[in-house]
Amino acid sequence: MSITRRSARRSVRILGVASASAAVVLGLSSSALACNIRDFKAEAKCDGAKGVIVVTDTDVSGTSATVSVFLENSGGVEKQVGQLEVKGSAAGTPVTFSEDWKPSATYRVHVKAGNNLVDEDIAGGLTTPATACKTESSTPTPSASPTPKPSPSQSTPAPSASPTPSDSASSSAPASAAPGNAPSPAAGSSNLAETGADSNTGLIAGLAGALVVVGGGAVFFGMRRRGARGDN
Predict the structure, then answer these.
(1) Which of 95, 154, 160, 225 lies at 20 to 30 Å from 131 by C-alpha?
(2) Sequence-ordered alpha helix ranges (H) in 101-172
């Protein structure tokens, strides 16, 4: 069977359409697999009590990219927080920037990947939450411990007065300083009670005194009478 010119033209036309379609499909596929800014996502998170900024790369082509984070201050002045390298994956590859961010702060995240595949900022930037990871009220303040006051038992005792010699002598002397050889009243009273003469002692003493006076007078008068006779 011979091929006519008409059939050949139809075959060439079909092959051209198929090639164009394949080129379009390959172009779309390569565009879909190429690294682009939509593969990057930035988030402000907390690592314990400190804040961090995490940028995740979901580029399935694994193109190496450089991520830079800047803090936007008032007046248009920026401060670079850090710069890290990352290779994306279908599951997402995160890179973490240590940044103790303040509430409602604004950051600019710039991505540069491949041979000018990506060289732009993440759309919308990054705004941190309105609540910080660690508030001022959660910070424990040292409690002021009161100065301990000395207890009565710890106070310095007052010096005791030293005893004077007179006090020592008086304290060392016995309670009763009566001589040992003096008869006690109790002993005399007991002897009088035994003899039964306690009631006649005064009478006997009076009679004895009267006799002594009478005898003395008699002797006196006798001597006077003897002297008078001698003179005659």
Answers:
(1) 95
(2) 165-172
Which of 126, 118, 109, 111 shows the shortest CA–CA distance to 69?
109
H/E run at residue 11: helix 5-33
pTM surpassing 0.70? no
- Reported as half-sphere exposure (CB side, CA atoms, 13 A), residue 139 has a value of 7
Tens digits of residue pLDDT in 180-202:
454 445 444 444 444 444 556 77
Contacts of 70 (CB under 8 A, 6+ apart): 78, 79, 80, 81, 107, 108, 109, 110
Q: Residue 45's closest CA among 90, 91, 89, 107?
A: 107
Q: What is the pLDDT of residues 16-74, one digit of tens each?
A: 655 555 554 444 444 446 799 999 999 999 998 999 999 999 999 999 999 999 999 88
